[in-house]
Write a structure and sequence with these properties.
By secondary structure, the protein is an alpha/beta fold. It has nine helices and nine strands. Helix 8 packs antiparallel against helix 9.
């Protein structure tokens, strides 16, 4: 986050951002919602922009072909990186969102809310959708459904992103930090797959490890 970057700068902390995975923000509806299979950015913006609070309250107000039923929204809380990314991509500004929805930092709460309400819609990470795809339906964005393949090949836009770990350059000299980051990158492809995020290519992990080792070789104590 920008405020965290400023805090690091203010305290003289230099860091290395290392990409370790891809993730996608997945828009989901209840399996019983047969009307909504695809949505575009403009429709998501109409649902979630601050100006829609208290005024856009039915599905049919977003798209006339959709049911004239209440629109029940679930989403991450304002402290979530998913919230920041979604609002920036959909509403044009990080943090810009209507507030009359059910927020939770626990994605399982969002899954439960949508899976039990045919009128509900939520957004959260792809991994949670994959774990619960039997009880939820992912909505395609501009005709592209989120999946490991579409995230990796870049066709799922604009709600896909790289995930990073951030390593304090000074701390990286410590044996335990060095060992941890090295282990992380040597095993990331397997570990990322286990948590149902999308791994980078083997070549990308090898390059990240080489970049990290170069940092250790060139940075001072």
């Amino acid at each position: 986050k920008e405020k965290e970057e400023k805090l690091c700068a203010a305290n003289g902390i230099e860091y290395m951002a290392i990409p370790v995975a891809y993730d996608a923000i997945t828009v989901v509806v209840n399996n019983g919602n047969t009307a909504v299979t695809d949505i575009n950015v403009e429709e998501l913006n109409k649902m979630w922009k601050p100006e829609s609070e208290g005024t856009v309250t039915k599905w049919s107000q977003v798209n006339a072909a959709w049911p004239d039923l209440p629109l029940v929204l679930y989403g991450p809380g304002a402290d979530s990186g998913t919230f920041d990314y979604f609002t920036k991509k959909i509403n044009g500004k990080s943090g810009a969102s209507r507030t009359d929805y059910t927020p939770s930092e626990d994605d399982n709460v969002l899954v439960q809310g949508v899976s039990t309400d045919p009128k509900a819609l939520a957004y959260f990470g792809l991994s949670y959708y994959l774990e619960n795809q039997g009880s939820l339906k992912a909505v395609a964005i501009n005709g592209v459904t989120p999946s490991l393949t579409t995230v990796r090949n870049g066709s799922y836009k604009p709600l896909s992103r790289e995930i990073f770990i951030y390593v304090n350059k000074k701390a990286a000299k410590r044996t335990e930090v060095n060992d941890f980051v090295t282990y992380y990158l040597q095993n990331a492809e397997r570990l990322v797959s286990e948590v149902k995020s999308v791994p980078l290519s083997s070549a990308d992990y090898a390059q990240s490890l080489a970049d990290f080792q170069q940092l250790l070789a060139t940075s001072g104590n």
